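Quick one, T. Sequence first:
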Amino acid sequence: MVCRVGLRDISAACGVSAITIRAHWIKRPEWPLGDKAGRSHALSWEPDELPEILDLKRGSIVVRGRVLNWMLRNGHMDDAIEAVRPATELVGKPEFSYSREDLWRWIETRTQRLRDQGLARAKLLFSVMALHRSGQTLDAAFDAVGIAEEIPSSTLRRWYYGTARKPGAKLYAESDWMAALVPTWAGRSPGAECSEEAWDVFKAFYLSRRSPTLAICYERTQEIAREKGWMWPPQRTIYRRVKNTISVQVITLAREGTEALDKMMPSMRRDRSGFHAMEAVNGDGIDWKRYCIWPDGEVGKPCTWITQDLNSNKLLAWRTDKSENKHMFRLAYGDLVERWGIPAMYFIDNTMAAASKWMTGGVKNRYRWKIRDDDPLGIMPQMGTTVRFVKPGHGQSKPIERANQELRQRVDTHPKFEGRGTKARPIPITEFIAVMEAEFKAYNAKPGRRTQVASGRSFDEVFKTSYESHPIKKATAEQRRLWLCVAEKVRASRDDGSVVLGRGPHGENRYWCEALAAHCGQMLVVRFDPQNLHKPVYCYALNGGYIGQADCRWAAGFDDSVTAHEYQRARGQRKRLARQGLDAERRLSALSAAKSLPAVVHPDDPESKVVSICPLKAVNDGITNTPSDDHDPERIAQFDSAVSALRAHALKDKL
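Structure tokens:
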């Protein structure tokens, strides 16, 4: 039988006077009712009946553990062990199970100080188990480790066997003891009360793109809360609540925008070492800050389209114009193909110049202009270049954006432009282009580049090494027409197949060739030089098939007899050639072919085998019926004569 403890025993174990225990402790609801025994009717309790922890106004105090420890120190070891074992039997049920993943996931939410406490407890229990495996009893091992570490053995037993509220380490695998023994203390709960209405108003002020300070938002909310009668805690409490309840990502998105939120995530690194020279390029337009004067006297800031190799970062081709337009992009692409070859892939954004139908028509995901099924293929798809549209202004997907920053510093801040480049003192465009090209070449030739591919070399050296060791596609003379001429979709004339360009207030130009006669009324693609519309144009089908070269048909003067005579000669020659071709094709006349037709056999007229009698209509209007004259011989003779005449006429038509 387990011995009982009285007020004096509990007072000695907990270091509290018996008067305090009688006046305060035993009156709490969690304190069990004691038994009265002996003459003095003194109260006594069994140790396992005492509360584990007693919550008081000044804090919490461990009661049962201290009493058991006091019993062990005063020679009541057996009684203390018997008091602990019931809790052990209660916890150690075979149906207990746990998830190691959930246990260790919960450990990650605890502070490092609590994790260190769990590790220290596990080490003590490991020492107990080592003594137990060496031959000592488990109780003796608890006592030995408790004495050596100056820790009550009852505490070690509680950690091992557990309590009614927390399973002990005995029910866990030894590899999980560190996690199982971490204290479950969760810290204090939020103290001051705050009205939800006031909290919503504060968040409306604070989570604003204007980014007001927390103090200003607190003052504004405080004024409203005072008027509305809301509960509003001190500013320090609001600061902690913002820090603990609103994520940093939400605050950044609301106060700084999506770009700042993107910067909170590490940028993706793209490996370009897998490309070789001219396998993949990217391009973009750069607007300069200096004002230049053009040959026609116009003053403005020039724009340059630059194409860069992705493998080496070398600047390959560029064109400068008054603004970014499709003609500049077309000529820059032509310079690239003419000098270095045809790139396999071209990375650009869907700017209006790059995504024009002249250059990228027929490419999916352009998201620019209205896409029709009969749109002609652009120059780049016909050249075999795969177009990849990327995010504008994004250096990870288009490295030319990073290069533009250095190029602006090289060109816009050049010493030769000191004091010039304004509207009052513009720079001649030829001088600007000369300085720009010199800086581009210096950019390519700069040694000591630290990119993954360069490794200390210049961009020129990297490009040269790869360019000389890999096959490069070159353009043919027919392909050169694609970028030297622009494309326009027109409908050929329904009568003669001619095409018309330049319709408008300045007149029009007609183009025609013999091959266009087979495409009358069809939609065609005409490629022409926009700078000289009097040159021949090149006609293609919508699928890219080449039709022929059409010459411009000039309008002759009204009294120009020489031109009229030449036109009639050309028309007569064309007719003569057409007749010769017709004679070659038509080797049999229509009359000869008609003689081969079989004779038409007409079937005999059918005879009626069923005859119905048509009765005479009686007239009941007071007039007597007249007899029928169907049997009059004279009328019968007239009828037979008319039938004979009709048969003779039909027989004549058959012959």
